[in-house]
Structure formats: C-alpha cells, structure tokens
Design a protein that fits this description.
With about 300 residues, the protein is an alpha/beta fold. It has helices at about 30-40, 40-45, 50-65, 75-95, 120-130, 150-160, 200-220, 235-250, 255-265, 270-275, 280-290, 295-300, and strands at about 70-75, 100-105, 140-145, 165-170, 180-185, 225, 225-230. The strands form two sheets. It has a five-stranded parallel beta sheet with strand order 2-1-3-4-5, with helices on both faces. The chain is globular and about 65 Å long.
Amino acid sequence: MSGPEVVRVAAPTERRNPSSYDLDLLPTRDVLRLINDADQTVPGAVAAVLDAVGACVDLAVDALRAGRRVHYFGAGTSGRVGVIDAAELPPTFGTPVDWFCPHLAGGRDAMWGAVEDAEDDIAGGALEARTCVQPGDLVVGLAASGRTPYVLSALRAARALGARTALVAADPDAAARDEVDLFIGLDTGPEVVTGSTRMKAASAQKLVLHAFSTTVMVRLGRVYSNLMIDLSATNAKLRGRLISILMEATGCPEADCTRALTGADGDLKTALVSLVSGAAVTEARAALARSHQQVREAIALLA
C-alpha cells in the first residue's frame, strides 16, 4: 500500500539561508541578532510591492462600496494572519463584521493548532468558496509558497463565480501568479530556519494585510486626519478615547465634546461634523448621508 503523498516545494522559502548555516552553534545573543537582521529585510520586500497592494486596495473599495465583501483564504500561519487582520477591523473601524471574511484551512481548530493535511484540502477550499463567495467580492489568497492547494482551489472557484482574486505569496515567480487578477509576490528569500515561513514570510504578509486593510478604511472615510472616527466604544477606555479623538479633531474643550457626543447619541462622526461646521446634529447626520460618510465632504457641504 502506498504511503501519503509527498511534494517537494521549490519556493525561495524552502531554500537554505547561507547566513544561518551555523545557527545551532551560535551563542543566544548571536542567534537573536541574526534573526533580527533577517527581519529588517521584510519592510523592503513589502515596499517593492506597494503598487500591487494599492491595486488590491482599489478592488476592495470597489467591492465594499457595491455591497460586496472581502475574503481571506489561507492555511497555517498565513491563514491565522488573515484571521487576525479581519478580526481587528470591526472594533478599530466600526466595520460590519461580514465586510472582511477570513477562511482558515481546517476551520476554527486550526487557529490553535495544526490540523493534519488541511492545507492540501483541495475540495474543502473550493467548497468553502462556493458556499461563501458572491460575484463582485474580492478574494485574497495567502500562501507563503504560492502553491497551497486549499488556497489555490478557493481562488479558482471564486474566480469562476465572478469574484475578483488576488494572491499574496513569498515567491515572486509562483506559477499561480497567472491564475489571479492581481499577484503580490514578496521577495523575502530563504528563512533563517529553512522552510519556517512563520518568520519572514508571515511578517511580510502581516505588513501587507495591515497596510491593505487600513488603507481601505482610509479610502472609505473611516479615518479623519490620522484619527479613528468609527471605532466601536465597547469599554471604558474606548469611551474615553471617543472624547479624546473629538478634542484632537476639533480643538474644542472636553465639556463641549462630551455634550456634542451625547447630542449625537454617541456617534463620533456626527458629533465631529457638527462641532467643526457649527451645524445642528440633524444637519450633520444628513450631510454625512449625502457624502457617503466622508467627514471632509460633509463639512464642505455645510460650509
């Protein structure tokens, strides 16, 4: 009887890093320095793909404005990075919980530990895409090697459904680059520990996703200046932050900001437009509705 399938991956992340050949012989401080030196190359790898990330932002903004969604599909560390990014958006930017939908090979159990053969589940990736993805959605695949079967099958199924697709990989020459609408190929090179893509490859994916999703929120008007104006105030600290943000944005005293926030039923954006423009709360709310929740446009409408 034949054994389980064996695949040898030729991605850059599987190559040996010459600088760490003697890793197991080094003193602790030198191991840490070597890892830190390698980590410092990650931002440069991300900087090289900013144009592609920007194009991905535009696809996401178009999808969300049309009432569609953004999906992340990944396995192992890549999938967990997607889950973390998606989970942080509703409390930070007040987004609907289904705007960004993470899909992790192996399901919830895979968030806390390895699920055997989950990344090779071709049928599972395709089925999940067919179950959740709609035409006009944006589906972002996360695969350090650029070849993860679960991810690629989900992308193929999503594209067949009429969704736009993107792939984030730590292999600039991944064969799947021609199967998606947008390819983001990160040149992070060999890992300090050969094949351990939880290191540089995952760090690069995290930087890409945080830049991507944050920029989407900026483009959708959920940031004013550099302030979070749609955050969900779910605890005492965040309720205090609402007042602080309003004071920073308007230059008004705390008492005025508290009063405006109360009059706006806790809606920071409405209180902000009202204070800056001098308009009544009802007028501020109407201007925001006319400007698709863009604060600067709403203020201009009331000028």
